[in-house]
Fold this sequence. Notes:
The complex is a heterodimer of chains A (about 280) and B (about 260). Chain A is mainly α.
Amino acid sequence: MKNKISQFLGFSIITICIIITLFFLASIIYLIAAKGLSAISWEFLTSIPRKSMTEGGVAPAIIGTFYLVVGSILIALPLGIACAIYINEYSPTGYMVNIIRMSINNLAGVPSVVFGLFGLAVFVNFFGFGVSILSGSLTLAMLILPSIISASQESLMAVPYSIREASLALGATQWQTIRKIVLPTALPGIMTGVILSIGRAAGETAPILFTAATFYRRSYPKSPLDETMALPYHIYALMTEGTHPDKQVAIAYGCSLILLAVVLLISAFAIILRNKYRSTYVN
Amino acid sequence: MSINNEEKIKIKADNINFYYGQSHAIKNLSIDIYDKKVTAFIGPSGCGKSTFLRMLNKMNDLVPNTRAEGTLLFDGQDILEKNTDVVSIRKKVGMVFQKPNPFPKTIFQNIAYGLEVNGVKDKDFIRKRVEDSLRKAALWEEVKTRLHTSALMLSGGQQQRLCIARCLAVEPQVILFDEPCASLDPISTNKIEELILELKKFYTIVIVTHNMQQAARVSDYTAFMYLGELIEFDKTATMFTVPKQPKTEEYLSGKFG
């Protein structure tokens, strides 16, 4: 009897926690939709801002965020997978690997504004990329690198040792085994890490503050070396600057709604890719 | 230990010692493995029989902090020498593992993999060899209509025969079986045993097993190991009827194990 009561209590508490979480999630989406939906129109999505951002659209910011996210993933993914392969498959276990692992974990804890300053010092000034999509993508790539590495490493570790043995026993080299057996098997897990990183890269404001984003721009970026508008920074600017706060707040909520949609869209693409891989290699 | 001078020797182990760090896993082992015969290794867990098996295709090289001494002649070439080409040895000496370990790929891709990593590009050749290997492993009839579905959908016994087919596809000379039936039901076990008897016409087979009846059923020669030493090596029929060593007799009669 006592056990049943304690089980009932446990389950009740868990259910309440889930309801609270869902409530917050639903209210965030409801609030943004309620306040932002009125701002959204075809013109809002496809044209450039006019009259100090109180009219027109936010198309350059949408495009800019899209470029920054895709750019940062393209940079961070190969680097992250390579690091994970080194740590998991090649490195001799010992002192050095522990140091590398510790550094990567610490990197994950660095505040994003520090990455912004690092990007400003290294990519913008030292390499001379200027305030640009390239500098911003590189900075965001540094930011998401730790989570891509640890997601990749965990999925590499989850690949059973027995199928590596099977491959080696057939006369495959270690490199062939990694490329043809281990990586394809680990890829769905790696993609999960990528999907989580997309949201992070799209939403962060601080890293692009000094490296890529501009407050106002009347044209679309034409090369990776152009500066760009971006949705999170645009929201920040609308809420803190400008001369027509009454109109700007609604636009800011509209931008938030679009930002959610952009993250969802890119993630959906990654999820489809992941599922396609899963079905090829597992079922 | 040589017991039959009439037979052709495929692998000759001479005074082998093997260490995992400080632990002495194989002690002064000398044995002849005869060509196109089945040699079974029996003995209690930890006696070193699997370690010896894994020396034959150099799988122990993957384990850090291990050391091998002695000579291990494969067709007269010492494969324990430092400059031995691991990849070419593993092509000649295939291995079937304790648990079926198909790749998470299709049935076809599983078999074709060994050819692809060895640089075979000819699609027709690969298709032909996939069919041949599956036929030799007595699996073709069961899977011929679903070659391009996942190998993971097969039953445990079918997966193990797939692993045998995968191993046959690279045309090894020797096949190592490391307790191949340990995770299979009796009917699947029976099929694998029949297959081993069929395969010995073309291949030299070494099998490690915990099942003494299995050793008696499939092998021509049996080696009994205990605590890293080879206690007795003889024709299977002789060893199971009149074992020479008291230790062997105790093990075979189930006094320890």
